[in-house]
């Protein structure tokens, strides 16, 4: 496969998009940001902005002409848009598509069966079909939960309230990655198109446990009022509660989405501890214990 130079980025303004954009620019790629017609966002002067109608296959195909790769960070709920973007990439003869995975190991059979990942599985199937017929290649990036963001917003642990949920006791290892490192992985994939074609790559900054993070969080917030609280939570209970909510006539997404996400990360057999990674290939250095502690200390300030 020839060198990838020009990259179109869909979804450059969310939690992850800006970090990917920064890393693509730092790595020397020529980047076009796809943004919905009528929106007005500010990007670095070196970035080309293409206003598109995400509901139009022709609009997307026109915007992707001349690009070597597409990176999508579009929300998973935008399944129709993401599928249309894949179709447009194939029509525009794009070489590589990186879909909006960036999370749990959806290649794991148990994880893939969780309803929260149904749309991602559909995108994977569409990419595999296009790869076999249209010449479009793809890479799925599995990175576990966002390590820094997950702590910052209280998803992994809550430093503000000095608490953490220990799922099934908190001794199970899981992989997690900072947003900046995910951006570096995207650039690394595009620099190694042959080695990363039509497969998933697995990355992490660290493989740790909630018990270990709890000790770091307790230490980092020792000067704050209140006692450090550890809440032991059953993954099976969380899983069943998610299904109970989903089966209601009008289910509340907040009552099942996070239940299934947490099941995929901290449940047994869901493949979110990446014992073999592509870190070395993609130029990612695993965090030391000191660096992980420094990260937690910095987020506690």
How would you characterize the overall build of this protein?
- By secondary structure, this protein is an alpha/beta fold.
- The chain has helices at residues 17-26, 57-64, 79-91, 109-112, 118-133, 147-152, 179-191, 210-220, 235-246, 257-266, 279-282, 289-300; strands at 6-10, 30-36, 48-52, 69-72, 96-98, 137-142, 163-167, 174-176, 199-202, 206-208, 229-233.
- The strands form three sheets. Strands 3-2-1-4-5-6-9 form a seven-stranded parallel sheet, with helices on both faces.
- The relative contact order is 0.14.
Helix content: 25-40%
Counting helices, strands and paired strands, the structural category is alpha/beta
Estimated radius of gyration: 20 Å
The shape, in one word, is globular
Report the end-to-end length measured between terminal Cα atoms.
46 Å
Order of helices and strands: EHEEHEHEHHEHEEHEEHEHHHH
Strand tally: 11
Q: pLDDT below 50 for ≥5 consecutive residues: which ranges? A: none
Spatial strand sequence of the major β-sheet = 3-2-1-4-5-6-9
Number of helices: 12
- The proportion of strand residues reads 15-25%
Mean pLDDT: 96
Q: Main β-sheet: number of strands, strand sense, barrel status? A: 7 strands, parallel
């Amino acid at each position: 496969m020839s060198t990838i130079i020009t990259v179109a980025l869909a979804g450059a303004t969310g939690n992850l998009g800006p970090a990917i954009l920064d890393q693509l620019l730092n790595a020397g790629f020529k980047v076009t940001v796809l943004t919905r017609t009528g929106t007005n966002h500010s990007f670095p002067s070196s970035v080309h902005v293409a206003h598109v109608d995400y509901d139009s296959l022709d609009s997307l195909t026109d915007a992707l002409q001349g690009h070597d790769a597409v990176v999508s960070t579009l929300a998973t709920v935008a399944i129709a848009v993401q599928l249309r973007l894949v179709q447009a990439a194939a029509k525009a003869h794009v070489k590589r598509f990186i879909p909006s995975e960036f999370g749990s190991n959806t290649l794991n059979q148990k994880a893939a069966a969780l309803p929260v990942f149904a749309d991602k599985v559909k995108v994977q199937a569409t990419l595999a079909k296009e790869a076999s017929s249209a010449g479009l290649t793809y890479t799925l990036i599995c990175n576990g939960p966002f390590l820094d963001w997950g702590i910052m917003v209280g998803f992994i642990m809550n430093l503000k309230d000095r608490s953490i949920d220990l799922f099934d006791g908190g001794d199970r290892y899981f992989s997690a990655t900072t947003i900046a490192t995910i951006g570096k992985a995207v650039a690394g994939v595009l620099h190694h198109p042959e080695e990363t074609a039509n497969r998933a790559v697995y990355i992490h900054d660290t493989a740790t446990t909630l018990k270990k993070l709890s000790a770091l969080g307790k230490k980092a917030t020792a000067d704050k009022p209140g006692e450090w609280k550890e809440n032991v939570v059953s993954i099976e209970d969380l899983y069943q509660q998610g299904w109970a909510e989903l089966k209601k006539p009008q289910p509340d997404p907040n009552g099942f989405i996070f239940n299934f996400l947490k099941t995929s990360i901290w449940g047994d057999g869901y493949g979110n501890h990446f014992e073999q990674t592509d870190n070395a290939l993609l130029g990612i250095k695993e965090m030391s214990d000191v660096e992980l502690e420094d990260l937690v200390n910095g987020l506690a300030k």
